[in-house]
Each structure stands twice: as structure tokens, then as C-alpha cells.
Amino acid sequence: MSIKSITPPTRTQDRDMSRVRMLRGVILASIAIGAAVAIVALLGVEVGDTGWKIVGTAFSITGAALVALPPVAAWERDRLAWLPIVGVAASAVGFALVIAGIWIQPDSEVLWKIPVTFIITAVAISGTSLLEFARIEPRQHWVLTVTRVMLGVVALMLTVAIWGEIEGSGYWRGFGVASVLLAAFLASVPVLHRSSRRAERAEYCPMCGAPNDAVIGEQSVCPACDRRYRIAA
User: Which of 16, 34, 101, 122 would you label with 62, given CA atoms 20 to 30 Å apart?
Assistant: First the structure.
């Protein structure tokens, strides 16, 4: 095993990491607050119009936080350049507009199309961010590329359909085909990730240094020293 040199983080990187940690804490707190508010509202004796607005607000806060978590994780690991920031912003703006719509109840359809567009964008970026954490063999990386493209295609087609108010069956059949392909590729990524992890093997026991073919990420027993250990993925 080769030993890599470690470069200490710069002050700018330290500041960026602090901001990411703070944002992650805000997101986790938002999930907890949203869940608590929804539970309190639902446990009330009568859930009137205001009660349902509170529940909708709580679920919107939780939804925004959940959609923003993958981009925050990608940002923390310096993945996808500026795209995670766009995803977090789109999630915050989209769900904030939804909350405003819940309480104001605007009659204009445009005022609902705008937040939905932001949310579609945020969800697409969130899915793309999750793909960054898949570890598959280099010869299979094309699956990730196609999945990213299909995420963008489905998000774009849905946005166009909403704004163009498309009702033609041909368009929706095309959207259905794109959605099925996206689902198929998304389902294949965890399988490839798992099989790739099984293909990765450590060369030596971390306890005694004996030759070893342990699978990374799984519990193993060294045949030389008979000790149990798990090598982190």
C-alpha cells in the first residue's frame, strides 16, 4: 500500500468547510423543526384551515431540507464545482415560494409554476449530487454519465410541459420513455456500486500485516492472527 502525503487545508478551505457545516446544521435543524410542527398540528383536536397550512409549511421545510442535503454533501467534498450551491439555492427559493403560496393562496397559475420549476431543478441537482458518491469501476462510468443526462432530460421535459401546458399524448409518451430509462439507470447504480465494492480488496491485514484478500467495507477475519476487522470504504 502506498502512503500519500497530506496537505493541510488553507484558510479559505477552512472557512468554506465551516460554512458547509453550519449549513448542514441548519438543514438538520429544519428537518427536526418541520417534523415537530407537523406532529403537534396533527395531534390537535381539530385541524382546521390554519392547521393544514401549518402542516403544509412544516412538510415544505422538511422537503427543502431533504432535497438540499445531497448538494451540501457534494459541496463539502468539493464536487460538481458551483452546481451544489445552485441546488441549495433552488431548493430554498422553491419551497419558500410554496410556503408563501400556501398562506397567500394566489389565483395566478404562474405563481405556482415558478416554485415548481425551482423544485424540479433542485431535485435534479440533488440526484446528480447523489451520483457523485457512487463508486463503480472505471469501465462502467458511462452508466453515471447517462444517468446524469437522463436526469437533466426528464427535468427539462417536465418543466417545458408545465410552462407550455402540453397535453399531447406523443409528448407525454416521450416523457414516459425518458422516465422509465432514468428509473432503470438509477436502479442499476446501487447494484454496480455494490459489485464494485466487492471487487476492491485490501492487500494486507491492518492488524498484523499478513497477506489478505479482505473485501473493503465488509467485516473480515485475518487467517494469520484470527482478528476481526473492517476496512472503511
Answer: 16
Long-range CB pairs of 16-20 (<8 Å, 24+ gap) are: 17/76, 20/72, 20/75, 20/76
Amino acid 231 reads I
- C-alpha cell at position 138: 472505471
Report helix, strand or coil for 215: strand
> What are the CA-CA distances from residue 213 to residues 12, 55, 206, 222 (Å)?
40, 52, 12, 9
Quick check: helix, strand or coil at residue 221? strand
What confidence tens digit (pLDDT) does each residue in 181-222 have? Answer: 999 999 898 888 777 655 445 566 666 767 666 665 566 777
C-alpha grid cell, residue 149: 443526462
Q: Provide the strand spans (E) within the chain.
A: 219-221, 228-230
